[in-house]
Amino acid sequence: MSYRLILAEIFNSWQGEGGSVEGSAFGRRQIFVRFAGCDLRCVWCDSRQFIDASKVLQWRYEIEPFSGEFKYKPNPATLDEVVDVILSLDTGDVHSISYTGGEPTLQIKPLKALMEKSSELGFKNFLETHGGFPERIAEIAHLVDYASVDIKDESARATGAWRDLVMMEVESIKILRKAGAKVYAKLVVTKDTKLENIEWYASLLEGSAPLVIQPKEPIDLTQKQLMEFYKAAAKILGRENVGLSFQVHKYLNVL
Ligand SMILES: C[S@@+](CC[C@H](N)C(=O)[O-])C[C@H]1O[C@@H](n2cnc3c(N)ncnc32)[C@H](O)[C@@H]1O
Ligand SMILES: Nc1nc2[nH]cc(C(=O)O)c2c(=O)[nH]1
Ligand code: SF4
Ligand SMILES: [Mg+2]
Questions:
Q1: Are residues 83 and 123 in contact, defined by beta-carbon separation less than 8 angstroms?
Q2: Whose CA is nearest to atom 2 of ligand 3?
Q3: Does residue 28 lie in a domain region?
Q4: Crossing angle for the helix pair 108-120 and 79-88, nearest 10 degrees?
Q5: What is the pTM of this model?
Q6: Whose CA is nearest to atom 21 of ligand 1?
Q7: What residue owns the CA closest to ligand 2's atom 10?
């Protein structure tokens, strides 16, 4: 079977998110494979230019690790092309391959094939997902070493069926955990995030995964709000299972 992937970009950088909770790869060097296309529409999405896959006609890849210089190829990419780029960006100190997007699980068969190939090559697989498709997650869970699963806050306005989405995300987290992945939940918070919703997410995650609270960039909420959210989550999840996460790559000006 020859797989085709609709991609946005591949580059080598430090993982800028995840804070210090168990399962985080914050500060680890990764090769990022960004898939094009997403079914959700988070109002603050920083990858908006890639969420309509039909408009992403080319994907770009860094020509030298950490150079920020790119070459372009037409979509879809072949699995062999992607593997060649990954190998060319392997600096020998790579912690894992990050599959992000857009939403990587929308292309579950090619994603699975790429994860299998990466494992064969000795890389760990780090999945960054909105977690809205537990049945697809189940197809790849055995290949996932690390997973960062977003819990979409109401204020993200990602979808009309927000509560259903949250339940799916929690289901995905449980599937990944059961399969042995190191998994944590990531909640992007804004000034409009409600404390009662934080309590709801925390109660759903109890016993399943730690939670990082990540302010939306650019940050619009107060430190007081952030402290309150943290406290409410820690009260339910336990003090070892909550942390903050900031998008540090944006402060460092790296990819
Ligand atoms: C672009 S998404 C791709 C993966 C997947 N679709 C998801 O949402 O988890 C990668 C990560 O960036 C986060 N993110 C995107 N835009 C952001 C922003 N403006 N501020 C903070 N986090 C953001 C998302 O919440 C997610 O954790
Ligand atoms: N450095 C860096 N860290 C990241 N962590 C999550 C990212 C993403 O867009 O998925 C990301 C990204 O785009 N760059
Ligand atoms: S789910 Fe991820 S890629 Fe999709 S719109 Fe939200 S942040 Fe962007
Ligand atoms: Mg990003």
A1: no
A2: 102
A3: yes
A4: 40
A5: 0.98
A6: 216
A7: 100
* Cα–ligand 3 centroid distance for 45 (angstroms): 6
Distance, CA of 125 to CA of 185 (rounded, Å):
17
Q: Is residue 149 part of a domain?
A: yes
The tens digit of pLDDT for each residue in 180-199 reads 999 999 999 999 999 999 99
DSSP state of 244: E
Binding residues for substrate: 14-16, 34, 100
Q: Position of tokens 């790869």?
A: 25
Ligand 3 nearest-atom number relative to CA 130: 1
114-136 pLDDT tens trace: 999 999 999 999 999 999 999 99
In a domain, 118, yes or no: yes
Q: What are the pLDDT digits (tens) for 208-251? A: 999 999 999 999 999 999 999 999 999 999 999 999 999 999 99
Task: Give the pLDDT of residue 52.
Answer: 98
Spatial separation of the C-alpha atoms in residues 46 and 20, rounded to whole Å: 22
The length of the chain in residues reads: 255
Ligand 2: centre distance to CA 1 (Å): 30
- CATH number of the domain encompassing residue 172: 3.20.20.70
Structural domains counted in the chain: 1
In the reported structure, the alpha carbon of residue 183 is separated from the centroid of ligand 3 by a whole-number distance in angstroms of: 19
Does residue 66 surpass a pLDDT of 90? no
Global ipTM: 0.99
Give the structural domain span for 120: 4-185
User: Residue 196 domain-assigned?
Assistant: no
